[in-house]
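Q: Could you predict the 3D structure of Transcriptional regulatory protein LiaR?
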Amino acid sequence: MDKLIRVMLVEDNVEYREVIRLALQQETDIELVSQFGTSEIGLRSLQQASESELPDLILLDLRLPGMDGLESLPRFRQSAPQAKIIILTQSNQQQDVLRAIALGASGYLLKSARLSEITEGIRMVAQGGASLDKGVAMYLLESLQQKQSKSDANNLLTDRELEILTLMADGFVKKEIAARLKIGYSTVDTHVAHIYEKLQVTNGPSAVNRAHRLGIFS
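A: Sure. Here are the predicted structure tokens for Transcriptional regulatory protein LiaR:
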């Protein structure tokens, strides 16, 4: 028989606590060992518990009375270092997702998830994996892709080309740019041609506009 996964639930909604209790009651490898309505009470219970009484996994809501889930997450990790934490919340706000993961959550599930998804998420995280709501996972993927695209864009132009494009954005023409940078007009002309080629545009305004859209300019 697989090791029993001992779960603590921190959730202020009594009815939803009961839903989770009944769902976990049906699982032979998961046991709900404690449930609390606030982070403060949950943390206090961990401080008073012996090592053998500590949970393997904590289901933590974000919107809690008193200390919210994001504030208490690091404290739960400190009080029960071996316990994995899954955020179980209604919030699909991007900042909540990123903050929770940055603070050490191993999973982020929405309360709209099916109970089978929650139990499978518990098993996955307990085994050392991660569990993310499908919508949350898609957002993180898109966020990483955008960061990668921006990184690629930042490496697209040389320092001199970026310098010239910045001056173009400020309204300087090629002759003025040459004088300002103390380089020849033909050199500026060559750099501008390379800028147009790399950004796949045919004129200055289009180059500036595309640089903004790619995140080359802040």
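Q: Anything worth pointing out?
A: Strands lie at 5-10, 30-36, 57-60, 84-89, 107-110, 131-132.
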